[in-house]
Specification:
Layout (H helix, E strand, L loop, with lengths): L2 E5 L3 H13 L3 E5 L2 H10 L4 E5 L7 H14 L7 E5 L5 H8 L4 E4 L4 H12 L2
Parallel strand pairs: 1-2, 1-3, 3-4, 4-5
Helix pairs in contact: 2-3
Length: about 120
């Protein structure tokens, strides 16, 4: 697992994740929205998606549902997903949990938790 897609509307979060994940040896592509991320997936293969849940426009739940639908329609393999969120107490988080993503990391997150979730994804 090398190619990661990070989707978050917060530029600082995107850049921080990219810096840390590059140091860990991953190739990282950034998207600031679900719409942008879907466009990237159409032209490239990813091993893992890390997505914020709460974003303007298409939220993380909507993005993952559209991503899964697109991959299925194109007969492409599914991509494991990890959600990151600062809103673990809200209904949108509960909805995200119901999707069965392989990992959930709360913001502010410690990188060890995120790296552990990524490591767990490698085992699937």
């Amino acid at each position: 697992m090398k190619d990661l897609l990070v989707v978050d509307d917060d530029k600082l979060i995107r850049m921080t994740l990219k810096k840390i994940l590059l140091k860990e040896g991953y190739k990282v592509v950034l998207a600031s929205s679900g719409e942008e991320a879907l466009g990237l997936v159409k032209n490239r293969e990813f091993d893992l998606v890390i997505s914020d849940i709460r974003m303007p426009g298409m939220d993380g739940v909507q993005f993952i549902l559209k991503l899964r639908s697109y991959l299925k329609s194109e007969k492409r393999e599914s991509i494991p997903e990890i959600f990151i969120t600062a809103y673990a107490k809200e209904d949108i988080y509960k909805e995200a949990l119901s999707l069965g993503a392989i990992g959930y990391v709360e913001k502010p997150f410690d990188m060890k938790s995120l790296l552990k979730a990524i490591d767990n994804a490698k085992r699937l």
